[in-house]
Design a protein that fits this description.
The chain is mostly helical and about 600 residues long. Among the domains are: about 5-210, no CATH class; about 220-380, Farnesyl Diphosphate Synthase, CATH 1.10.600.10. The protein has 28 helices and eight strands. The chain has a four-stranded parallel β-sheet with strand order 4-1-5-6, with helices on both faces. It has a two-stranded antiparallel ribbon with strand order 2-3. A two-stranded antiparallel ribbon has the order 7-8. Helix 20 packs antiparallel against helix 21. The protein starts with about 25 loop residues before the first helix and ends in a 10-residue tail after the last helix.
Length: about 600
Amino acid sequence: MPGLQSRAQTPRRVPHIKEAPETRELRQLIRDACVRHAVELDKSVPLDRTQMEFHARSILDGLGQAESYLGWTMVMLASEFWKDQVAVVPPSRRLCLLPHCLRHAETCPGVYDETGLDCGTCTACEIGDYRIVAERLGYRVLVAEGSPIVMKIILSGEVDALVGVACLNVLEKALDKILLAGIPCMAVPLHSNDCRNTSVDRDWVEEMLSVVKDEPVASTRTYVHLMRAASRLFQPDQLARIGLPLRERRAADRAESVPITSIDPIAGTQSLAYDFLMKGGKYSRPFITLAVYDAVTGGRGTGPDGEQHVGAFPDAVFKAAMCIESFHKASLIHDDIEDDDSYRYGEETLHRRLGVPTAINVGDYLIGMGYRLVAKEAGELGAEAVADLLHCLADAHTRLCEGQGAELLWRDAKDKRLSPLDALKIYSLKTSPAFEAALYCGARLAGPADAYAEPFRKFARNLGVAFQVLNDLKDWHGDRANRRGSAGDVLSGRPTVLWAMALESLSATEQMELIALAETRDRSDDWRVRRACQLYRRAGVEMRARQLVEKHQERAKAAADAVEPDELRRLLYYLIDMVLEPPAEETPLGIVSEILPAWPPGLPS
């Protein structure tokens, strides 16, 4: 398959350098080169990040231009790659994404809601001008940043292509996953990442909005149909269609003002479980199951007739995908209880809202429901296949509990010392089994899957470890959606590889101080986080963590290279890019160090 074997020879990906060419002439020169280069590209499959960077570097080298334009060139090349496929999508099926930083901040009358900036009928800035042009053409317009709301709209089935205007920082975050998934997309970058003083090539934006093509064009494989199918599985009508209807409740019980304690207890437990199952999340695990099943049965779900093909999957496949998600959601409920987290999906956690006993029961209900979904399919799948699936799921379930148990025992132990190897063992047990189960179940639903078991285990183990290490780094950014501050792992005393690396590298006195920071509460959280940040930086843990991510990412790719068919190998590479979001260029520990209060005078720094 074109492109797959070349990935190993491409340069190792480095953080994108995001400067826009200073003059219109230079921007036009690079854009024209991207047009010429895109004509020669194989458009049957999307380019991944490494391939896109390789081609962009080639363009800049050919023009003798600076590496600092790499990110800008990648956006231009991606836009040309997808231009024809955007052009054949009717404007009424396109989403126009505009940046709020083009507004006049001091006089802007717009207000923010859950979907971004609501401009109303205002035309006082460029945003209003572009919005009017786009809406006249039939576009849906969104003034927002970030990928979650954009992906939500795309997965809803309301739009099939995206055009956007944004700075390079935002484009990398918002469009990266969209491009990788194979969703037609074009963008015009702003001239600067400075939200207070930026501009854009206005004629390029208007040209992009007006692009139209009537004749058929070659289509690129896309995962959007499989992603939509995974997301739609958890809508009430789909739950009912495959045999999980919500029990009818009394009209009084359905009223939002009725307290949960007055609802019929049998229907109430099911309702709470279904509500949590349908709430939030990316549904990446059921997507994996559906996508693996599709890949080993011919890969038609990513082709031109993908929507019809995926819709015709046997219900047993959909039920297995739902089972994976029900186990995942149950683990989240139990994990929130064990960590006493306050928020999940931006709302109060179930145990905080309804109490620990009810939350435990809802999690247990989801586990039982998951096993039942698979066990009832012996008639369609055969007893041997169902036994294999249940064994895989049970093994993943027990390993997850072993990993969580190890974390809890360490958290509650008097000795807070932990080796990096011990931390990685916990990671491989906590995070990898769900990925492995999702992969194996997808293949086993299509037939015997013994040949996939070991490659999938290696792939999932390395993907899960890399994912968890990245989460440790992101913890220093905090989590606005779940209202968590920075460095929650340190403050809560959770075992992480960053903690283990720090203890391994610091002096004996510094080790004791770091341990004391997690155990004592006689200082403010800001004070404790700042000192932990300084100790982590002194130990150089962030660079080592990034190297660890890269090592396990390469091992995941090596495991992917060992599988066939090509469609499955391509999917595994896509999962690496989808799950392992590139870390921010600016170090999280450095950011925390700058935003926290100054170190108290008179104390050692």
